[in-house]
Amino acid sequence: MKHIKQYLFLLALLSTIHIAFGQSIDYTKAAAAINLLADSNKFSGVVLIAEKGKVKFKKAAGYINYAEQKKLTTSSIFELASVSKQFTAMTIMMLKEKGLLNYDDLVEKYISIPYKGITIRQLLTHTSGLPDYQAMMDAHWDKSKVAGNEDIISYLNTYAPAKLFEPGTQYLYSNTGYVLLASITEKVSGRDFVEFCTTEIFHKLVMSHTAIRSLKEKAAIKNFALGHVFVTEKQQYIRADSFPSSNYTIWLGNRKGPGRISSTVDDLLKWDQALYTNKLISQTTLVDAFTPMALTNGSISNYGFGWDLIPKENIVWHNGDNPGYKTIIMRFLNNRATLIILCNNATSEFENLTADLKKCILTNSRELLTR
User: Fold this and answer.
1) 132-187 pLDDT tens trace
2) Are residues 197 and 274 in the same domain?
3) 54 with 103, same domain?
């Protein structure tokens, strides 16, 4: 009965937040809602909201490590999961701007794969039709070893699982495509993908807590938020890396491109703000990242280069989902607001919290635009 009352109170509290946000964003109510979720183990993470680059709300709730009850801080480092894809896409755009490749180049120009006629643009927009490498590796890879891009590409050539559809005809989210993009970056630049991202993006933007880290490097960071999953039999949260054979982030721990970047909310805000400048690429080049993809049947896919698109609201965003983690960055381009949520207990309430905070920001945005 106590949990039911808490849940009903939380629903009421979240509903009052978005009313308050429309007038003057009431961060006290937002903080109370997040605290309530954390108290019932329905959220562990960090939330940041910024307007025109200025932090308006930042809060940590929950634990770095549930077993030790070590609390998160707003500077805790999280695995970003697929939020990493926008950085992979950026490396390709940087090389395109330098004239080193073209989006409509065929992948086979750079990498030997058993799938012909796929372009770099189709990799970027998830319209390649490539099969899922993870399922293939799960079936054939020796999980006592750690696989990287070369292993994945080698297995694609060895086992050659069938294409899912003809390139350009459909949208279907593809981690395989982003593995190939990272390998293309290496081939074209002549540099390791990790070094390229570190030097050309993280260092340039002074994202001092952001990196593509090995398992050993993550373990050495005291403020690294460990991913947790709820185990029903034990009725408690357990570290996701307690299950190595079923945790692909361990035995695919050397892959580059679709994930593996870890960061903080403050570093992600630096990234967000840099996208309004020419620090990495020109605004003209960046337009392609936020442009829907036209499919061969004439329909439109609202996924650009490493970004999901909501054209009607002029929002670009991406989420991430790894064992124990849920993450999101959402950019409201009309009023340059930013929402970042990094979560390390993969709670089912994550989507509800995101939706409520999005409503709050949009309501406030409409208010500002009418002044």
Assistant:
1) 999 999 999 999 999 999 999 999 999 999 999 999 999 999 999 999 999 999 99
2) yes
3) yes
- Cβ proximity of 348 and 4 under 8 Å: no
336 CB-near residues (< 8 Å, 6+ apart)? 51, 52, 53, 276
Asked if 101 contacts 107 with a C-beta cutoff of 8 angstroms, the reply is no
Give the number of other CB atoms < 10 A from CB of residue 220. 9
**How many secondary structure helices (H) and strands (E) does the chain include?**
13, 15
**For residues 170 and 118, is the Cβ–Cβ distance under 8 A?**
no
**Whether 35 and 141 share a structural domain:** no
Pick from 197, 338, 309: nearest CA to 256? 197
Active site residue 301: no
Residues 35 and 79 reside in one and the same domain: no
From residue 51, how far is each of 156, 250, 309 by CA, in Å?
Answer: 44, 37, 20
**Whether the predicted pLDDT of 5 surpasses 60:** no
Residue 82 sits in a domain of what CATH number? 3.40.710.10
Q: Cα–Cα distance between 178 and 123 in angstroms, integer?
A: 7
Encode pLDDT of 239-267 as tens digits: 998 877 668 889 999 999 999 999 999 99
Query: Domain residues for 89?
Result: 44-346
Looking at the chain, which runs of residues are DSSP E strands? 45-51, 54-61, 63-65, 70-71, 78-79, 211-212, 228-231, 236-239, 261-263, 293-294, 300-301, 308-310, 315-322, 325-332, 337-343
First vs last C-alpha separation in the chain:
45
Q: Which two tokens stand for residue 102?
A: 């073209």
Statement to judge: residues 133 and 213 lie in one domain: yes
- Catalytic site residue from 44, 82, 183, 263: 82
In terms of domains, do 281 and 354 share one? no
- Per the structure, how many domains does the chain have? 2
Query: In this structure, are 33 and 85 located in the same domain?
Result: no
Say how far apart CA 191 and CA 181 lie, in whole Å. Answer: 13
Q: Whole-angstrom Cα distance, residue 183 to residue 93? A: 14
Do 129 and 268 share a structural domain? yes
